[in-house]
Amino acid sequence: MKRWIALFLSFLLLAALAACGQVSDMDQKTEEDSGAAEIGTDAKTGLDAVTVSTVAELLEAIAPDAHIILAPGTYNFSAMTEEEIAGCSDYVDQDDLLNYEYFLISDVTGLTLEAAEDGMVELVTENGGASVLDIRKSDNVTLRGLTCGHVVERGKCNGCVLYAEDCKNLTIEGCRLYGCGTDGIWTERVDGLTVTGTEIYECSESVFALDGTGAIFDRCRFYSNYSDILFYFSDGTDILVKDTEIYDNQGYLMLDYAECGEDTDNRHITFRNCIFRDNRQIDREPASWPCATFEDCEFPGVSVLSTAGTPYEELVERFYILVADPYGFMDIAE
């Protein structure tokens, strides 16, 4: 009898072990088959973070105090289906996505959007009339390592790259904002905009247009923009641009607000330790800008407009470039 009891218990033990193994296998399979965003810990900050790999996952994860890491790839807001848009977070405007194909975040605090690898994550829209990313009524939002722009034919765009309104403490780190967005950054009533290590290029109306904004641009690069004016800023705006390279641009540096009859006491921009080079129409002396201060900057002080003394070979070269790209020379008099 004891032998049969021992044998029976052995069978029970084997059955229990097999069942445990099956449960474990099922759990593992469930985890592998899940297409949802992964939740883990950010190695850089030690904070909880969610990793997403699709546009739908990204927009579903938007929430206060969320730290979202974007896996490498292109996130195209114009390619979303109605079903995916319906699954968006309450902090994302579904109507704008459905009708205008752009990403509008509002009423969120403490949000971080970060590329898993710098330069390997791109946010785009195919609608040239929309902003790529729009942030409103939000505080302490950080964008890090992202590339953002429009994928439309050059000259057929009237939407900016990044728009922000009624926000506080907006931080942009190590990003790349490109045209043909009209403005790289356009803000209205933003209290505390900090942009570091960021490139803004190929924009058609301005590098930035700031209204009622206090801003710091640090170690940035502004280049290859073909706007008439590089920097717009209006009343209640105080801007510091430091340790930044500004080169290969075609427009004037800024408006002469005094000549326009506008108040010059409530707006100012300071360039500190900046390098200006190969800009086509930045040809005025620094002292002639009443709203600007230049501290320890390398300023060209000369125009590269063609003159009667321009060598024949250079004129021919400019002609061929103009034929190939009519927007290539904004400095040619009409």
Structure characteristics:
eight-stranded parallel beta sheet; elongated; 334 residues; disordered N terminus; alpha/beta; 24 strands; disordered C terminus; 16-stranded mixed beta sheet
Mean pLDDT: 81
From the helix content, strand content and strand pairing, which structural class follows?
alpha/beta
Q: Could you tell me the strand content as a percent range?
A: 35-45%
Proportion of helical residues: 10-25%
Protein described:
By secondary structure, the protein is an alpha/beta fold. It is 19% helix and 36% strand. The chain contains 5 helices and 24 strands. The strands form 2 sheets. It has a 16-stranded mixed beta sheet that branches. Strand 2, helix 2 and strand 3 form a beta-alpha-beta unit. The longest helix has 32 residues. The radius of gyration is 27 Å and the shape is elongated. The N terminus and C terminus are likely disordered.
